Amino acid sequence: MRYIKYLTLALSICIFSCSKDKKVETVTEPEFKIAYEKFTLDNGLEVILHEDHSDPLIAVATMMHVGSNREEPGKTGFAHFFEHMSFNDSENVPVGANRKLIPEWGGIRNGGTNNDYTVYYEVVPKDAFEKILWIDSDRFGYMLNTVTEAALEREKQVVKNEKRQNYDNRPYGYTNEIVRKNLYPEGHPYSWTTIGALPDLQAATIDDVKTFYKKYYGASNASLVIAGDIDIEETKKQVEKWFGEIPSGPEVEKLVAQPANLTETKSLYFEDDFAKLPELRMVVPTVEDYHKDTYALSILGQLLSGSKKAPLYQVVVEEQKLAPNISTYQSSSEIAGEFVFRVRANENTDLDAVKEGIDEGLKRFETNGVNANDLKRIKAELETNLYQGVSTVLNKAFQLVQDNEFNGDPSYITQTAKLTNAVTAEDVMRVYNQYIKNKNYVMTSVVPKGQLDLAVTGSVEATVWKEEVVEGVANEEVSQGEEAVYEKTPSKHDRSEPPFGELPLFKSPDIWTGSLENGLTLYGIENNEVPLVQFDITIPGGELLDPKGKEGVSGLFANIMIEGTATKTPAELEEAIGLLGASINITSAREELHIMGSCLAKNFNETIKLVNEILLEPRWDEAEFARLKQALETSLKGREANPNAIGQMVLYKLLYGESHRFGIPGAGTLESTKDISMDDLKAYYANLSPKNASFHIVGDISKPQTEHTLATLNNWKGDTIQIPKETLPETPVKGNLYFIDFPNAKQSVILISKLALSSNNDDFNNLQYTNEVLGGGSSGMLTQTLRIQKGYTYGAYSRISAGNEVVPFYVQTSVRANATLQSLEIIEDMLDSYGTNFSDTEVAITKNKILKSNTTAYESFGAKLNILLEFSKYDKEMTFLVDDQNELISMNLEDYKHIIQTYLNEDEMIYVVVGDKTTQLSEVKKLGKPVIELDIFGNPI
C-alpha cells in the first residue's frame, strides 16, 4: 500500500507563464505525512497505529521516557543496564525466550538507550504478531518479580563487556566522557555517558533495579507504536488485552531545558593508548531538540564542512592538507544541545595547526556568508533523506514513537519538513553568530601515547577512570543461576503464550530483466511505496585486478572517479549530485567494482546523465589524487589501532597466503600503496567494460522507463575483461593459535577460521543453513553460551562470507581479557562436538528460523537490491529464492552432519587472538595448541 505518494519539502510550486497576460498558477502539493491513528489506554499508555500492507510483517516499538538523564551520580549507566535486564526473564515468558524465540520466529529484536529514552523494538512475520504483544507487554509490566542475583551479576558482565568493546578498547573511546565531564556542570543529567562507569555498574543491586522500574516503567511514561500489516480495530483489542493491565506508575516529572553555560573555554589533552592519529574536537553548547533553531544549526553544519566548497573543508583538507576530512554537526537531546567540530588529523600533525585552520575557515564563512546554491543543495539532500528515513515499517515506527513521546505529535515529521525548508540564509548566519561565533567551548586533543607535542598548546590533562587488566576470572564468574520464586501477578486475561496466526506466504518479488546494446545486462524490481530509486552497476574485477605489488589501486581508482569529470571540477560534480538530492558512490570490492546511487524517482534521468559523465569523462585531477593518497595513508595508519581490523587482516593473510590477492587487505598496505601513481589508475580504467557488467535497480520506476533512461549508457563501450585466476595455498595452515600483542587491551579479539568453499559450490547454501544454530545471531549457541550464560562477551557469531573464490568460515567474538582462555575452551569444545550434538531438534529450529525470517528479509530497497546482485553475480534461476527454501526444506539430519564433517572440522581451523600479551599469552598456551606470536601485520616475531 502506498501511503506517501508525494513527499516534498516545498509547500507550493509556482509556475510562471512566459506570457504577461496569463495568471501565475500556484500548485500546492500534499504535505509530507505518515498516516496513523492514536489512542490512549486507561493506564495512560499512548498507542499509535500505522497500516502498511506492502509486506506481511509488523514492527513494534515501545519507547520509555527514561534515559541516562534520569540517573544520579554514583548510579550512572543504570538506564542502559536496566534495558539489558529487561531482556532476561518475565513472569509469563520462559527463561531466555526474549532473546532466543524471536529470531526463531523469523523476527529481529533489540533495544537501545541514550540520554533521553530507552526503546525496545521487534519486526516479525505477521503470524507472530500476538506473540510479540505477549513478550513486549510481559517485559514491560511483568518482569520485576523474576529478577535474581545471578541474572543481575551476569548482565553486569555483559554491559561491562559492551563498554570495553565500544569505548575502552578502541581509540578515542574516552573522548565523549571527557567532553561531557567538562561541558556540563557536576550533577547535570548529561555530565556522564549513557554507558556509565564500570564501578557504578558493579555496585548495582536488586533494590536499585526495583526502584528504577517502579519509578520510570509505568504505562503513562511510555509510547507504543505498531506499524505494518495490521487491522486497526483488531489491533486495538489486542493492545487493550495485553497492555491494559500494566500499572500507570507514578507521575514522572518533566525535564526542562538545561543548556550548558560555559564561563570559559576549556582545552584538554589525553594520551590514548590505542590511537595512532591525533584528533581534535571542539564542542559548543547550543539548543535542545525541537527548538526552532535546531534546523538552521543542522544546515550550518553542512555548510561549514559538508562539501568541497565548504570553507572548513577547503582550508583544513584541501589547502593546508592537515586531515583527510572534517565534520561539523548539530547534536540535540531533550534538554540541551551541542555543535561539534571533529578532525582526525594526518599522522604527526600538530593540532595547533588544525585549530588555526578551523579559525581561518570560520573567518572565511563570516566573510562569504551562505551561498544560495549550497542552501538549495542541502535542502534537496534532506528531502531525499526524509523519504529514506521512512522507507521501512521499523523506521516509520521509530519516527512515530519518538515524535509522539517527546513532542506529542506522532507525525511531527511534517513540521520538520516545513521548518527545514523555511530556513533562510539569514537564519543560518543568525544562529552562527548567536551560538558559535566567539563562544566558549570544550576542546579535546586526543593524541597517541608519547606524542604530547601534538596537543594544542596550553591544554591541561584530562582524567578518566581506566580499568586494570588482571589475570584470572575468580571474582567475575557468573552463571544462569536459579529461577526466581514468586507468585504471578493476577490478570483477568490468560497470559500464556498465544498461538501463531495464519502463516504469511513468502512472495518472491517480481524481477524483470533486459539488456543494452553495449552488452550491459539489466535487472529490476519495481516498488512504489516511496518515490525513490536505488541502483547499482556491478563491473567484475575489483581488487582482483590490482597489479601485483600495488594492492590498493582499485580502491584509489574508485575514489578518484567520483572526483569531478572532464567538464566539472570535484566541487561542481558534488554540487550537481547534491542539487538532485541524489547520491553516487563508487567502491571496489574483492571481486567487482560497484557504482551505486539513489535519488528521487523524478530525478533518475538526470542522475544517470551524471553517472554516464563520470564513467566516460574522468577528470584525473592531480590535486585530488594527492589528497586521496594522503587520506589513504592516514586510514591505513589508523587501522593499526583497531584490534578487530588487525585480527581480520592477519587471519586473511594466514588463510590465503601473501601470493593470493585476498591475503592482502583490500585497501592495500602502507608498503603496497606508496608507489601507486595516476598512471596506475588510468591503466585500471581500461578494466571498465559493460561486457559481463550488470545494472540493478529497485524503486518507483518501471522497466520501460528504466530502459529509456539507460539508453544514454550505450555510449559506454569495452571488451570482455579477463579476471586473473588466483591460486590457493597447496597446504592450508591449520591447528595453530596465532597471538598478536595489543598492549593494555581490556578485551581479547578471537577469530577461529578455515577456508571452506565458493558460493558457486552446491553445498554453499547448506553450509549457511548448518551454521544457523551455531552462530546465527543472538539465538545461536555462541552468543547464548558466551554472553547469556557466562557474561564473557557482548556478542559472539559465526559466518560464511560469499564469493566466487573459496571463502572462509569463521567464528568471531571479543571477550573480557581475563576470560580469554575460558572462552577459547568453550568455542573449541562447541566446534568439536557440533556434529555429534546436532539432532532433529536443531534441524527443526534451523528450518523454522530461516523460513520465517524470509518474510522480513526483503523489505527494504537495499535488501531487494541484494536479491538482484546475487541473482546476477551467481547466474541464478529466476526462482532462486523459492528454490533455496525448497533446498532447506529437503535437508535431513544426515545432510547437516555431512556438512559439519566436511567443512567444520575444528582440527582444521586456525585460531587468531589479539590481546594483551602480558596477561594473556601464558593463559592461551594452556589451550594446548601450538602458539605462534605475530606482529600486527602478521609477521612472525
UniProtKB/TrEMBL annotation:
Domain Peptidase M16 C-terminal stretches: 204-382, 675-849
Residue spans of biased composition, Basic and acidic residues class: 485-497
GO biological process: one example: proteolysis
Chain segments carrying region Disordered: 481-500
SUPFAM superfamilies for the chain: LuxS/MPP-like metallohydrolase (SSF63411)
Segments forming domain Peptidase M16 N-terminal: 47-182, 529-653
Pfam families: Peptidase_M16, Peptidase_M16_C
Single Gene Ontology MF annotation: metallopeptidase activity
InterPro entries listed in its UniProt record: Metalloenz_LuxS/M16, Pept_M16_N, Peptidase_M16, Peptidase_M16_C
Alphabetic keyword roster: Hydrolase, Metalloprotease, Protease, Zinc
UniProt similarity note: Belongs to the peptidase M16 family.
PANTHER family: NARDILYSIN, NON-CATALYTIC MEMBER OF PEPTIDASE SUBFAMILY M16B-RELATED
Protein name per UniProt: Insulinase family protein
Organism: Formosa maritima
